[in-house]
Amino acid sequence: MIRLLMLDIDGTLTRSRDVDELEPEALRAIQSIKDKIRIGIATGNAMIVAKSLARYIGIGAFAPIIAENGCLLSLNGEEIPLCRPGIKELGVELARRLGLKLSYQFNCRSFDAAFEITGNEDEIIGKIRAELQRMRVEAVVESSGYAIHVLPPGIDKSTAIMEVCRRLSIPCGDVAYIGDGRTDIGAVKLVGWGVAVSNAVPELRAAARIITKAPSGLGVAEFIRDYISR
């Protein structure tokens, strides 16, 4: 039985991976079940962005909200840091050394360092990893497809979902997670209902228990209709 539905934002609740606009069918589906199960958000975006979206899609400020790829959790109105400080400052130094462009959300972030993808994604990731090695700093570098993130080791969306499950006394096997990118892989593997939308990256589709027939937000609506509403 699904007791908690966690949703990625970009590429999952949107019309596609290339469009920022939210998919109306996904929003209607969320509204149809919001009084039936708990619904939350797990994103690489800053908490201020995630909380605003939670309000506008109607799940409320007390919903489980995971921001900065697992570094920050908001639950029942309380913000809970899950990362050690210092990575954000590291991001400033990496930007200076490598000429990287910090994410437009950078000043709204508390922990995770995010950079805009201004060229070849794999080349930028390689440059960051090589520089971290030269600096003798241990960190994880990953792309969401929308930004390149630097995180402390051992932190991702799955570690934050485990904390949500612990605090809500919900087994992770009773959680559904829907995503589209590489930063969703840990969460999809953790939960009982790991879902990739049809246009997700190949690595996520390979890890998912369920792959929707429809892409992005239409895939979210499809999963809700087929597995929760029925």
How would you characterize this protein structure?
With 230 residues, this protein is α/β, with parallel strands linked by helices. The protein has 2 domains: 4-80 and 155-228, HAD superfamily/HAD-like (Rossmann fold), CATH 3.40.50.1000; 87-151, Hypothetical Protein Ta0175, Chain: A, domain 2. The chain contains 8 helices and 13 strands. The protein has helices spanning 24-33, 47-56, 87-98, 121-135, 157-168, 185-190, 202-207, 216-229; strands at residues 4-7, 14-16, 19-22, 38-42, 65-67, 72-75, 78-81, 113-115, 140-143, 148-151, 175-179, 193-196, 210-211. The strands form 3 sheets. The chain has an 8-stranded mixed beta sheet, with helices on both faces. It has a 3-stranded antiparallel beta sheet with strand order 8-10-9, with helices on one face. A two-stranded antiparallel ribbon has the order 2-3. The radius of gyration is 17 Å and the shape is globular. 46% of the residues are buried.
Strand count, sense and closure of the main sheet?
A: 8 strands, mixed
What Rg is obtained from the alpha carbons, in whole angstroms?
17 Å
Helix content: 25-40%
Beta strand count: 13
Name the poorly predicted regions: none
Per DSSP, the total helix count is 8
- Label the overall shape: globular
